[in-house]
Amino acid sequence: MPGPQPGPATPGSLVIGGYTADTGGSGTGLTRVRVGAAGRLRAVAETAVSGPSFVTAHPRLPLLYAVLERPDGGVAVFADAPHDGADDGADDGDDGAVAGAGPRLLAEHSSGGSYPCHLAVDPGGTWLAVANYGDGTLAAFRLGEDGLPEPDPLLFRNEGHGPNARRQEGPHAHQAVFGPDGVLYVTDLGTDEVRRFLPGMTPHPDGPVRLAPGTGPRHLVRHPVTGHWYVAGELDGTVAVYDDEWRELGRVPASAVDGPNQPSHIDVSADGRHVYVGNRGPDTVTAFAVDGEGLTPVAEVPGGGRWPRHFAVAGDRIYVANERSDRVAVLTLKDGVPEPSTEGVDVGSPSCVLIR
To answer: Which of 21, 105, 111, 248 could cross-link 116 (Cys pair, CB 3.0–4.6 Å)?
Structure first.
């Protein structure tokens, strides 16, 4: 394992997505949060939009994309200039911190399916992939030179089910992730699969990766050095490890706390030494040390609220979206190990944290 490498710098701001009143939450849409020089958080702008439960950014252009998680399914595009605003005038003791304006809505499109919950842009900025949880479809929008989606996306349906009759009665696409080579990976919680698409959105000739029945794969992440994949199983409460050929190397509990657990998001530290996973139920974040082909738990700490649905890692902080306590909390990292802190900001029903 290589030695520690520099991680991302402290962000100038965060963009928080979440559920609005019409989608079962208490938020107002997208919220921009200012990150002060001392790490203090303050909400500084809001953009009203219905149910933006997950948000991502274009790799080059100042654009954001959000799913609109509702029955008819939507995708929204926003102009984003996170550091072009003026300071809002409040003195919080953070010299040099500048707040930006809220993202500006440019366009809305159908997501091609129901209840979209995740989306991603490929490294070249040419495709926008949208995972529709409700009916399991994947929608692939070609992006123009301006970053705006072209009409009539490619739609890829799936079939099948899993052993959990309540949650796996049919396909449920849950996350879309592009690898560095442009291959797209889509977790399907309903069918216990990772669906794969080659660059240009051609289905992989070898078909999907089939995981252990009942896993309920939610989110996954690739190790930047070894190429190993780590998959958070929402239904079996585990983190599974796969090599770059998708052979399972091991499986560990995501939490050591007794009781039900639905793991949510998973990520790898910038230096590749740790894997982090959010646990809904225990309401914790677990840190694992990467130990060759396996994972060794090194800490499990409170996530700073209830139902930690998503988190983002930047520098020596983890920003945790606690959906059911209306708060984005901050965990500090000491040599890669998270510790609770008192920092945070109140945001209605947060479900996604995007570093800007």
So the answer is: 111
Strand partners for 294: 291
List per-block mean pLDDT (blocks of 10 residues) for the chain, which spans 356 residues: 48 95 97 91 97 98 98 97 48 44 94 98 97 98 98 97 98 97 97 98 97 98 97 98 97 98 98 98 98 97 98 97 98 97 97 97
Phi, psi of 240 (to 5 degrees): -105, 145
User: Which helix H or strand E contains 241, and what residues bound it?
Assistant: strand 238-242
Among residues 314, 295, 125, 300, the alpha carbon closest in space to that of 226 is found at 295
What tokens appear for 137 in the block?
């479809």
Residue 179, number of CB atoms within 10 A of its CB: 16
Q: Which of 154, 179, 4, 33 is nearest to 92 (CA)?
A: 33
Q: Which of 300, 268, 299 is nearest to 284 (CA)?
A: 300
Place of tokens 């959105």: 201
Distance of CA 23 to the CA centre of its chain: 19
Name the nearest CA neighbour of 332 among 345, 349, 320: 320
Cα–Cα distances in angstroms (integers) from residue 154 to residues 113, 140, 157, 180, in the given order: 11, 5, 10, 22
Residue that the structure tokens 């649905």 belong to: 309
Instruction: Report the alpha-carbon angle 266-40-328, nearest 5.
Output: 40
Tokens describing residue 263: 């793991």
For residues 321 and 333, the answer to whether their CB atoms sit within 8 Å is no
Residue with tokens 């510790």: 339
C-alpha pair distances (Å), 124 with each of 142, 144, 145, 300: 11, 12, 11, 37
Q: How far apart are CA 190 and CA 170, in angstroms?
A: 5
